[in-house]
Design brief:
By secondary structure, the chain is of the alpha/beta class. It is about 35% helix and about 20% strand. The chain binds pyridoxal-5'-phosphate (PLP). The site of pyridoxal-5'-phosphate has 14 residues, from helix 5.
Length: about 400
Amino acid sequence: MNPPSIVRTSTAELYDANVMKNYARAALTLVRGRGAQVWDDAGNSYLDFTSGIAVSALGHCHPDWVAAVQRQATELIHVSNLFRHPNQGELARRIVGYAGPGRVFFCNSGGEADEALIKLSRLHGVAKSGAEGKCYKVICAKNAFHGRMFGGMSATPQEKIQKGFAPLVPGFAFGELNNLQSFADLIDEQTSAIMVETIQGESGIHPCTSEFLRGLRALCDKHNLLLILDEVQCGVGRTGKFYAFEHAGVRPDAIAMAKGLGGGFPIGAIWVHEKFAGLFTPGSHGTTFGGTPLACAAGLAVLDVIARDKLLEQVTARSGPWIAELTKLAAEFPKQLTGVRGRGYLVGLQLASDSAPYLTALRERGLLVVGAGGNAIRVLPPFIATVEELNRSVEIIRAVLAAKA
Ligand SMILES: Cc1ncc(COP(=O)(O)O)c(C=O)c1O
């Protein structure tokens, strides 16, 4: 069959005719980005405080990131995991440096990272009970989001995500976030792990309290359960610490990360404490693409720039006054904005009504942000955002709230 001839048509038409309709996309075609700015195909610029849903930690097309990826693309792009490559070894070393003694497995997305950890929890259950299929239950939180693969989706108790896909993977139970007793009540001899997002992202930025995380740690120690923290959205610096759990002084047994790690290049990773890292053995898990020289070059560039430019310190220093200004808006417009949650550059604005009209109004004034569950908006600046850009975001949000007053 001949390939279809190239027909000049608009991007919107191309999408309408050819792209799967599983997203309610904004009517916006983006063609260029630099720092915290993106431009559409009509030349309009926007302040991009979506960061590609918490991905573009260094903003768009950071020169050091671009140089590192360009350099690696001319050297070696992909070799598979049948061989070693210096970049993968070095990126693993850096992650171990942040997370503690343990080992890293690279994949390509947050969903894959969560899937790997759900598999790890099964292996832990086998080791713990001495038999297959006896100890496999993972306790997660209500309103969680752990991706859209079968394991992660089954761990995501939301109708809009699970509907139509039954039968789900068995073995998940759900406690109330920040209610330790509700988790304790679900533990039985079939339980192998507890898995939570340190800060729930998709459901609208709901942080675990430090006491809750410490309580989960104690429960896991008492019952020999893995404590798995999903830091796919909140990790890699977004809260001003490399991992969000550091704020609570808690150490998990396993971490899922992705999004910010590649600064826009698809990469995911799990870190597993050395006590449990031996559960995966040759053949028990794998991926063709995970941890390619190119993906790891992107990850190393992100970590290099974060360290060199002290971006975690910058996120911490700049986010405090910025969040304080956003919080003032809640006092100014209490009927529309009922709360401000989060930490660092992972902030949720709780609206009193549907977020969709707000997202449109903000976009029309030049600010891109992300919707979240329960009528919330996520505001996710890149770590390189300037004070002027942060202030501008507050002014645009203020103008939109005022217009809706
Ligand atoms: C906490 C969390 N886990 C997992 C995922 C899934 O990641 P991905 O979309 O890269 O598969 C996400 C994505 O938003 C997430 O926020």
